[in-house]
Amino acid sequence: MIGSALTRRWMLGALGAVAATGAGAQQMPRSNARARWDLIVVGAGTAGLPAALFAARRGARVLLLEKAPQLGGTLWFSGGQMSAAGTRLQKARGIVDSPAEHLADILRISRGTADVDVARLAVENAAATVNWLESAGLEIAPQYPVRATGHEPYGRARVCAATDRGLAILRVIEKELGAAPPSLHVQTGTDVLEAILDRRGDVVGVVATDAAGVRRDYRAPHVVLASGGYMANAALFQELNGVPKYRAAGWPHNTGAGIGIGLAAGGWVRGRENYLCDVGSIPADLAIPSPEFARSLHHPERRPPWEIAVNVAGRRFVAEDEPSVDARERSLLAQPDHRYWLVFDDEILRSAPALVRGAPPGEVRDWTTDELAGAFNEAPAFTAAPTLEALAKRAGIDADGLVATVRDYNAGQAAGRDALGRQHLPRPIRRPPYYAIRHQGGTLIAMAGLAVDAKLRVTRPDGKPIEGLYAAGELLGNGTLSGKAFCAGMMVTPALALGRWLGGNLPLGRPRGA
Fold this sequence. Notes:
Helix content is 31%, strand content 17%. The protein is of the alpha+beta class. It has a domain at 281-440: Alpha-Beta Complex (Flavocytochrome C3, Chain A, domain 1), CATH 3.90.700.
């Protein structure tokens, strides 16, 4: 199967790069388990690295524990998309922006479902974080900033990324770590198992097993959980979000360990109601979970639609040229199994602009018409048939529903009045063979996550904080920072910014409460 083969080649190449490059990244002397630390950071990824670095710069004795053999976490695979208001980049382009406007946009896009306190803390520290990375050598790609890249747009152009995506951010932070004070100790190959609680229920350290499998206690008055999400744990994903993990993707060490540590310490998980799936993803096979094979370009802001989108009943469920990404995502959320098919005929295949963008190793490009036609002979998500009835049967769509839907669509196309209000009606669907491409809604990020307060302290179900325990990064869940929406740049930037804020603001070096 070309989809599965492509995905396997990409994963092997990427993991090979991790092994080759990460093996020498900041390998510091192994720490003394009996030492007394000011701060323990669990997870050396997007949030954990800046938390540890900025705390050490204040003179704190910091122990950074990482389960993987190398640093970086999801930065190895992340698109590295950031959003921040009031950056030097914006000012150089004459863009006037503020954290208050950024927060207002998040609340508008999420319809008020994001956590106001945590989102505010993130956006208020975002610009300084992006400016820090730029000053340290991060080169933002020349097309930025923009209002959005595939998500609901902001009111201002505040989204940016480096050409080399998340890896560029990692390289800059690695360089900063090279000049870190000696009070920062990094220990890889260490699996943190649980928090150590005193008689009051406060966190005073962690229990972990090191690379040799030896169980050790590490003590500190402050512990930051920054161990990422749970995309590598399909069972936990379904338990926390209430839907299957449709997409096989994610950093392999993101097994949800931080969730387990937080729950065992008395915390709780929130955000299940904010689950949302994206549109445009074509699965590599029909199993669950499946890797993503490619993505379709039927987003109307990039390519006006020629095809129709139908659910398993063969019915259309949204105007395919609906301009709001949010509206299209929410309409998909209401469909059975969050699944749909793009249906079209041979005339559309031969006449329409490029429909599919693939991601073979080392490149991302639009498919030619011949490549698209060839996929119907090879890829499981691509179905062709001489009649609509046969197409429906082969693709797993209700035949009566599909036939009726195409008939109604063609009538509306001829009259110039679509029943769902679609405006772009270039061709009817009437010339065999007919084609269907199966799409699967899903997500690459954790939606539900550990509950925290405005100071990022992990809280109990009654809202009271667990003293000594903090969380940042994907562990908080997209539902906290973006609510029931995908707000551009609101995963990578908050992880960096909130980790940096914790490192710079925790009361390190003195007793808690002092």
